[in-house]
Amino acid sequence: MVGAVTNGPATSGVGPAPVAFDDAMRSYEPVLGLETHVELGTASKMFCSCATAFGAAPNTQVCPVCLALPGSLPVVNGAAVESAIRLGLALNCSVASWCRFARKNYFYPDMPKNYQISQYDEPLCSDGYLDVTVDTPEGPREFRVEIERVHMEEDTGKTAHMGGATGRIHGAEYSIVDYNRAGIPLLEIVTKPIEHTGELAPQVARAYVAELRDLVRSLGISDVRMEQGSLRCDVNVSLMPRGGTEWGTRSETKNVNSLRSVERAVRSEIERQAGVLNSGGRVVQETRHFQENTGTSVPGRSKEEAQDYRYFPDPDLVPVAPSAEWVEELRATLPELPAAKRARIKAEWSLSDEELRDLVNADAIELVAATVEAGAPPADARKWWLNELSRRATETEVELADLPITPEQVARVVALVAEGALTNKLARQVVDGVLNGEGDPDTVVEARGLKVVSDDSALGAAVDEAIAGDPDAAEKVRNGKVAAAGALVGAVMRATRGQADAGRARALILERLGVQ
Amino acid sequence: MSAITRDEVAHLARLSRLALHEDELDQLAAQLDEIISAVAKVQEVAQGDIPPTSHALPLTNVYRPDETHQGLTPDQALAGAPAVEDQRFRVPQILGEEE
């Protein structure tokens, strides 16, 4: 996809000043490409039986195969092939009836074999699409992102660079490697060039990755936790003059590991390339690394050409040839996909475009749907996830889905409020307890003694005490100054440590004082 | 015509992060050329009617169940490592200053 403009000096690292996004958009049309890696949630690795648990002590999930010791041989994990086919089908791809693994040769210590087992010209799945929706001032707009391929490969080990000032590879004196991750099954999903997005390019890129993540999650083939690296994204961007037909030279930005970063990476790369082109320079085809702290990228090592990887079919592995019957069996296991689910939920819960958008933007739709399935009314489920829990997630800087509370637990809290066993205020305390790891809602209610004091004898005693304790207020109420009852209600709430139903307490006070 | 040039050997050496002397490039180019020419003899018998093969056995779909087995202990895994730090393989500087 390279149609390079060849005049002008090459510019990469320290280039001309970037151009403001809106100005860049007046002169250029971006073309995007996204390569996304999804780490599968299989129990064992792609080609050996080592465990794949995240966060294990270094080099405790390794064996002769993933350490490339002499004489070891890889054998394909059938569950990983199954996951790859299911994702391909969910992305409307065709599934190859015969394909092979290939060796991608390179010399870098993150793979002890000096090659990575991948797929080259025979991907398992190809030619699909994923529809994504982007909000615009004129309302939601749909884009079809075409999928080039979905192929299987293995993840690499984790390197840490030591002795340098920054912890980065540049200037490091040596590196240390943990091979626990080496050999974990990966799917690489590659889009075709995405054109005609104009100034919506950053949002389209983000919406695509979000939709892909939800799709993968709905298939149950990966936990897709971007912060743990189980979904990683490389973003290709090139610019061509508006009205032009020849694509510019693209850069590839790696290390883009959150939805927000995807959007920022596209935007900053458009601004950078526009700066280079406006000053008469030319964009260099290169790999860049996204910097989370600045939202911009820096050039990485010069990219090896595909021919430098000297791909060839891996002679240690036999071809993968899924039968049509197997593919159809797997097609039958596909769940309701996120787009269909959104449409259904919108109709069933009678949501407006805005209400649906809020749910989608808060990344709450699956959580709310699960809470509804657990018995909560949709309105209550939405209220908890969008208000209280979204606030907690923001405060603790975690994704909503990563809060330590389950949809079932939220549904239980909703039920306790509906029964009158909890007030909204108490319910928030119960949620506090659950988030603190104190157990299920009922356990927290019990342990913290959080129960609405609703039986009238206990409440009545508290009311009598409050009246006896504040004769002035009581007298005012008797004389018709009903507002004075607030002080008495406050006393009752204090006496019951906030567990009384304030409305009920007020009614009892007025009744006792002869005001109806 | 030689099958492999001196420039190709230099290129492969760079990809492999190997520092070769000028005389080693000449020597290796000549040796690799001989090896590749010998292997290329296969092409004389395998004409267009014989499809290339990537495996010695006519098998497909050999899969393993998704089950875990204990592999090596870290001590075993690291036993052959030239250097170890923090239970990890310690390797020399990866990129030189020029990169």
What labels describe this entry?
heterodimer, A: Arc Repressor Mutant, subunit A, 3 domains, 9-stranded mixed sheet, 3-stranded antiparallel sheet, 16 helices, disordered N terminus, B: 99 residues, mainly alpha, 38% helix, coiled coil (chain B)
Fold and architecture overview:
Chain A is an alpha+beta fold. Chain A has 3 domains: 10-311; 339-448, no CATH class; 456-512, Orthogonal Bundle (Arc Repressor Mutant, subunit A), CATH 1.10.10. Chain A is built from 16 helices and 17 strands. The longest helix of chain A has 20 residues, at 259-278. Chain A is elongated. Chain A starts with 9 loop residues before the first strand and ends with a helix. In chain A, 40% of the residues are buried. Chain B has helices at 6-15, 22-40, 42-45, 74-78; strands at 63-64, 84-85, 88-92. The mean pLDDT of chain B is 87. In chain B, helix 1 (6-15) packs across helix 2. Chain B contains 4 helices and 3 strands. Chain B has 99 residues and is mainly alpha-helical. In chain B, 38% of the residues lie in helices and 9% in strands. Classes of the chains: A alpha+beta (516), B mainly alpha (99). At the A-B interface, strand 3, helix 2, strand 9, strand 10 and strand 17 of A face strand 1, helix 4 and strand 3 of B. Strand 3 (76-77) of chain A pairs parallel with strand 1 (63-64) of chain B. Chain B: It catalyses: L-glutamyl-tRNA(Gln) + L-glutamine + ATP + H2O = L-glutaminyl-tRNA(Gln) + L-glutamate + ADP + phosphate + H(+); L-aspartyl-tRNA(Asn) + L-glutamine + ATP + H2O = L-asparaginyl-tRNA(Asn) + L-glutamate + ADP + phosphate + 2 H(+). Chain B: Its EC number is 6.3.5.-. Chain B: Pfam families: GatC (PF02686). Chain B: It comes from Streptomonospora mangrovi. Chain B: Belongs to the GatC family.
